[in-house]
Amino acid sequence: MINNTDAVKLIDSKRTDSVIVPTMNANNVGFGLPSVTSNQDLDLPLSGAMGKASNLGLGIALAQPDRKVMVLDGDGSLLMNLGTMVTSANKAPTNFYHFLFNNKVYAVTGGQPIPGSDCQDWEGMAKAAGYAAVFSYDNLEDFTTGIDEALAATGPVFIHLSVEPQVENTPVQFRQRSPRTVKMAFDEVPAALGARSG
Amino acid sequence: MTTYDSVLHPPAIIAELKKNNITHVVWLPDSETNFMYQLLNDEDSLDLVPVCREGETMAIAAGLWVGGKKPVVLIQNTGIFESGDSIRGLGLDINQPLVMLIGYRGWTRRGPTPDSAARFIEPILHTWGINCYLIETDDDADRISIACEEAERTQKPVGVLVGTEFGV
Ligand SMILES: Cc1ncc(C[n+]2csc(CCOP(=O)(O)OP(=O)(O)O)c2C)c(N)n1
Question: B58 contacts in A (CB within 8 Å)?
Fold first, then answer.
């Protein structure tokens, strides 16, 4: 299994000018993308609207076809909105990279098991949904070796990662919060893209 | 006798979308806007983004907006009920100036309706503080421009309820 921080660090190191849309543990202030990012202005975290990170990323990918968009999704989140895989594959943006952080639990809410976590075949689901390419890594070494090939593939690409369940059991009201608010992120990313509309 | 002079034709809506420089229509079909789908498919300046459930539409529209495009959402009133957390988290909370075209299933011009989808839609939008306009005839179509202007000015979602349309 891959450590959550190692995964986001590796993805961030390959981002160049990509927009990254992280959610849940991949967006944890202490051990997710915000703790390692090299280009915060192009990070658009999703905290409200569980399950919709890939839809948000799809919209950006369609609007900015010359720039890669990387979505860092949670398994519970993706299960909540499974049709998004078909929606993305159907629209087929070549610049869309959908990473699934599969830790088999709802980590943010305390580590409860995800329904069916022992029998899911995420690669099979992504292939059946119509992603142009599907990759899967269950250890950091293989992921480190393979990520360049995954990011060189023409999208939409689905990258399944077996990630350690890192459960934060601090009561919600005492957890560390990002100083960068949702409002700030939704102002900064369009500005960095030179795309502020209206 | 039914006359078809005072009804809503899809070209009137599409003309409004073009006038307001809309780039994408993120949608899931409904009977109320079926004829519009056929026309939208033929319209080069509008990119259609079909979804599997309506809650996806506001999130995709948010991404398009962040990326500099000007989308609208086109769904049925039932789809608004399905989309609550998206409207909250990726509409209202992020100040998205999103026009939502909403097929008004069950609309009977304020006569009695057995369809709860019609009875609940306006109270629910109002509870969220989302203003909405009704379009029933071609003469009403310019309310789409009013909605677009209002969404930009207030930086929040605005609804446009589409009464039953008629074919061309
Ligand atoms: C619609 C909705 N239902 C439930 C929740 C509560 N909730 C917040 S985080 C979370 C778990 C997310 O799990 P997953 O996507 O697997 O990511 P992980 O926490 O494992 O990184 C849940 C259920 C929510 N925020 N929204």
Answer: 49
Q: Does the beta carbon of A176 lie inside 6 Å of ligand 1?
A: no
Cα A39 → chain centroid: 16
Query: Could you tell me which of B133, B129, B68 has the C-alpha nearest to residue B93?
Result: B129
Q: In this complex, is the C-beta atom of A52 within 8 Å of any C-beta atom belonging to chain B?
A: yes
Sketch out chain A's domains with CATH numbers.
4-193 (3.40.50.970)
* pTM of this structure: 0.97
Within-domain flag for B111 = yes
Any chain B CB within 8 A of the CB of A66?
no
* Number of domains into which chain B is organized: 1
The residue segments making up the domain with residue B29 are 4-162
Q: Read off the pLDDT band of B92 (50, 70, 90).
A: very high
Taking only the tens place, the pLDDT of each residue in A92-108 is 999 999 999 999 999 99
CB neighbour burial string for A9-32, b if at least 16 within 10 angstroms, e if fewer: bbbbeebeebbbbbbbbbbbbebb
Q: Which ipTM did the prediction report? A: 0.97
In a domain, B148, yes or no: yes
